[in-house]
Amino acid sequence: MASSSITKTIPIMAIPNFNVCHKLELIKEEAKSGDPKLQGEEEELSYEFREMLESLPKERGWRTRYLYLFQGFWCQSKEIQAIMSFQKHFKSHQNDVVLATIPKSGTTWLKALTFTVLNRHRFDPVSSTTDHPLLTSNPHDLVPFFEYKLYANGDVPDLSGLASPRTFATHVPFGSLKDSIEEPGVKVVYLCRNPFDTFISSWHYINNIKSEAVSPVSLEEGFDLYCRGVIGFGPFWEHMLGYWKESLRTPEKVLFLRYEDLKQDIESNLKKLASFLGVPFTEEEEQKGVVHAISDLCSFENLKKLEVNKSSKSIKNFENRHLFRKGEVSDWVNYLSPPQAERLSALVDDKLGGSDLTFRYN
Fold first, then answer.
1. CA 198 to each of CA 82, 166, 201, 316, 330: distance values in angstroms, whole numbers, following the listed order
2. Total of domains in the chain
3. Residue 116 in contact with residue 285, Cβ under 8 Å?
4. Residue 179 lies in a domain
5. Cα–Cα distance, 38 to 45 (Å, whole number)
6. pLDDT tens column, 81-110
7. Fewer Cβ atoms within 10 Å of its own Cβ: the N or the C terminal residue of the chain?
8. Are 82 and 148 within 8 A, CB to CB?
9. Does some domain include residue 177?
10. What UniProt keywords apply to this chain's record, in alphabetical order (predicted)?
């Protein structure tokens, strides 16, 4: 049974009602009036695509003006454009690896770990103290997002020249990803973080990178949106449950990892990750210290201090430095009031209870 106490381990669609007709007229009037906020967000989108957007429920956005309810989850207009291109054109290959997360759940860390594990024979993490790609490239450049890099703006990339195993990343829920990865041998690694810390990390990050045309999201407003499921690629409970259930159904295809487990015992989880990907560590490698070296190379502390992660930009025009804030477990206690913590705890109990999906919050 799920516990409502946030000091204990807590196990893990409702769609909000909208007056759609009123909202459609609002969009049309804003478009006619030349609202600069709307133009800045959607000026590069085709007329046909904007017409499609007008058919979707929308809510106040976090870093752009609106979030739209698309295929059962919330996302921005440019993300919808990229996802549609991805779903139409991407062809999976045997041995492809897809890293999946909901935003601010340790995506950058997972990319660094996976890239280093898969490429350790090419770039020895023990001896490559000055020329390892992670020292000069952000993990998001080494493992590209489908929706933010490869298919951004509706592009159709040529992926034929990529070496196997091709490694990609996405925030897309499993229900909207599954048809694109049906090829036998495709592996999915999902990293999940407790919903309390995920919210706080998201709130900080989005307010740091949002457009100046969009007003800041207060903690109270953001928390209410989050608890209603209105956040990028949310509701968070649907996102988590989609990958969790698939990992139980097809454990050979989907590996479900927890952020808090990696923080507590990174080396055991690195071994689990390597084995799942078909490249287990040998006894010789363990004796040589390869596992420990990967852990150190990919640590939050090491990545944060690298120059490439202080000044460069890897995701759209967002500065890499905003990707590295604290990386701690239980930072939420410094922000959420007791009533807020109680509300989110009850929501987790309600949405994830009975699924056997549990988290550690301390």
1. 24, 28, 5, 21, 10
2. 1
3. no
4. yes
5. 11
6. 999 999 999 999 999 999 999 999 999 999
7. N
8. yes
9. yes
10. Transferase
- Decide: residue 242, CB within 10 A, 0-12 exposed, 13-18 middle, 19+ buried: buried
Strand ranges (DSSP E) for the chain? 10-11, 58-60, 66-70, 73-75, 97-100, 167-170, 187-192, 254-258, 313-315, 318-319, 358-359
Give the span between the Cα atoms of 204 and 17, in whole angstroms. 28
171 in active site: yes
Residues in Cβ contact with 22 at an 8 Å cutoff, skipping those fewer than 6 apart: none
> And the tokens for 297?
């190379």
Cα–Cα distance for residue pair 190/171, rounded to 1 Å: 10
The alpha helices in 101-163, defined as continuous H runs, are 107-118, 139-142
Q: pLDDT value at position 123?
A: 92
Question: Domain residues for 114?
Answer: 80-195+234-333
pLDDT in tens, 213-267: 778 889 999 999 999 999 999 999 999 999 999 999 999 999 999 999 999 999 9
Classify the C-alpha dihedral 248-249-252-257 as positive or negative: negative
In this structure, what token pair is assigned to residue 323? 């990707």
Measured between alpha carbons, how far is 316 from 334 in angstroms, rounded to an integer? 30
Flag whether 259 is in a domain. yes
Token reading at 316:
């759209």
Nearest to 138 by CA among 290, 308, 16, 284: 308
What type of residue sits at position 230?
V
Instruction: Give the DSSP letter of residue 140.
Output: H
Catalytic residue among 89, 121, 132, 171: 171
Residue with tokens 């594990």: 117
- In this prediction, residue 322 has a pLDDT band, given cuts at 50, 70 and 90, of low
Contact 73, 235 (CB under 8 A): yes
Beta bridge partners of residue 293, listed in sequence order: none
